[in-house]
């Protein structure tokens, strides 16, 4: 039997009380017409997907960990970042938390990668040269 | 992934319209200035490889298996369900096990098949993120992950389906199923009338990705 609202011992989230929701929790809200445009995935996006699949397969974190970091982004970043940008941010956060590498190692690597050239093609996959 | 080769010219003769061979516009890729997040992808990947945690081959295989999954896999499951009542019963009882029976790697997720009938039409969504039966249908379409679909389809499904060109009779009940990371749905569209003589293979060709999401019906053969 459902508890009456005033005695419910937990935070309730009625459909008309939008302020109580976090940004990712959008079911039932109003929205714009659906944008039907579809894109093929870019290689870097597929690689982000692969990083998630391998990280979870090898037990570094779970899909819940992926979601936790994305849901903590807040509306400004959630909307500004593309889908796989949110993912790579979360994969990175989870792998650092799991001890796979340190923030310092990431920073040094990103500086090294950026110094390789101007484009993704210049900078990806030439680390053995 | 024909657009992922190291071709820096998007105006090659085979793509003079600016569309990829699959008919979609090219997304910004490796010929654009490196973004912060692309750099992060490269850096994570290389760190994990240098530390011996991942191998390049594992990453390639993960991408290959992702690319190998497509709605054609789900369509085969649907066509089997249409032609084999015992399989259909097993599919509705345990979508994961029935799909594995056909050789599809469903992974750890629980797959739940929901069947459209004359009186009930099912639609799937993931309001909180983008959970999708990707092991059976491949990666989701862009709109499935966007705010407009995720927010509205649970509240005004009839209006949303109309945007997809699907108008259902008022007496058909619409059930919207909200997926989670561990529990994902696939819609078994209703078998079109006049398909009694078709082979399982011919039937599978009538089953689109969108019909297994529930924003379309199976195609009626001409």
Can you tag this structure with a few keywords?
heterodimer, A: 129 residues, mainly alpha, 6 helices, 48% helix, globular, disordered N terminus, B: 222 residues, alpha/beta, Nitrile Hydratase, Chain A, two-stranded parallel sheet, 11 helices
Topology:
The complex is a heterodimer of chains A (129) and B (222).
Chain A: H1 43-57, H2 63-71, H3 74-80, H4 83-97, H5 103-114, H6 120-123
Chain B: H1 36-50, H2 56-68, H3 71-83, H4 85-93, H5 95-101, E1 110-115, E2 120-125, H6 134-137, H7 142-145, H8 147-152, H9 157-163, E3 173-178, E4 183-188, H10 200-204, H11 209-213
Parallel strand pairs in B: 1-4, 2-3
Task: Describe, in plain words, how this protein is organized in 3D.
The complex is a heterodimer of chains A (129) and B (222). Chain A has 129 residues and is mostly helical. Chain A is built from six helices and no strands. In chain A, helix 1 packs parallel to helix 4. The longest helix of chain A is centred in the middle third of the chain and has 15 residues. Chain A starts with 42 loop residues before the first helix and ends in a 6-residue tail after the last helix. Chain B folds into two domains: 37 residues, no CATH class; 143 residues, Nitrile hydratase alpha /Thiocyanate hydrolase gamma (Nitrile Hydratase, Chain A, Alpha-Beta Complex), CATH 3.90.330. Helix content of chain B is 40%, strand content 11%. Chain B is built from eleven helices and four strands. In chain B, the strands form two sheets. Chain B has a two-stranded parallel sheet with strand order 1-4. The N terminus of chain B is likely disordered. Classes of the chains: A mainly alpha (129), B alpha/beta (222).
